[in-house]
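Possible regression after last week's pipeline update?

I re-ran a chain I had predicted before the update to compare outputs. Posting the input and the new output here so someone can diff against the archived version. Not blocking, just want to make sure nothing changed silently.
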Amino acid sequence: TAADLTSSATLNDRLTTAKPVTVRQVNIARRQVQKLAEEFCEEAIALRERFGEVSKPIGVIVNTVDLAAEISRQLRRKLPGTERDSVVTILGAQRLHDRQELSVKWPELFDVTADSDVRFIVATQTLEVGVDIDLAALVTELAPGSAIAQRSGRVNRIGARSDASVSVLQPKYDRSKTRTPYTFEELTAATEWLERRSGQPDGLAPWSLLADPPPAAGTRR
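New output (post-update):
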């Protein structure tokens, strides 16, 4: 409730700190994975430059494994020297064993108060839930509004910083076959909602979404 926000500065920061969002249509068919990956890499690198003072990774979340893998490959190719090792790729469902391995190699990733040498995290939907991680900014593929809200929840996780950014890229989807886990109708509804939220200064701040909730994903069989 509003009273809880007043009584807890920590909760207030976490729920109300602005997360500005932009939506950009990319004139590339979703099936053109290599070209589409180039767009995501350019956006991610631009965000890295913008948030260079923040010792947190830039997140890149897309809807399929093939696109995530190609983005990781291209990012590593574009980065100089040892920076190539600062790209972490997380694909598919994360079993307990998988997360334990990540936490051993990159323990600071799972501590939202710690600085990190990881520059980029490239992932599929596995980062939407169940992972307590803090991103400096996010570039994400269009997805249902509820999924975008979950993904943006990893940006400036505890509201410790005054600046954050969520960039949504929208490729050209085929109405009959989107090449993603989502339907064309789900993505269309999400676009309308995101365009509305992009006009609001608080963007995807969790508290603001109570009054303008994201359209839910459709049920799966």
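Follow-up from reviewer: compared with the archived run. The mean pLDDT is 89. Marking as no regression found.
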